[in-house]
Design brief:
The chain is an alpha/beta fold. About 40% of the residues lie in helices and about 15% in strands. It contains three helices and three strands. The protein has a three-stranded parallel sheet with strand order 2-1-3, with helices on one face.
Length: about 90
Amino acid sequence: MAFNIKKVGVIGAGQMGSGIAHVCALAGFDVKLHDVAPDRIKAAIATINGNMARQVRKKSITEDERQAPSSGSGPRRPTRRSAIAIW
């Protein structure tokens, strides 16, 4: 049976977790980022935003894609709740 995955949860907002969240967001998934420390989530989202800004400067993605909300098409911003999890 095939699954239609739309949401991805990432447990752990360190270097690896933020990287996974970034790639999943660019792939168009609704990404939810979890960590025991709320400051790590804020730092990871800031890092992802910075990385996406660099991708805009390099013309890898557009500014519209970088700014896409979690409910639109294209890359999505990581948020805090999930349907499935990666750890």
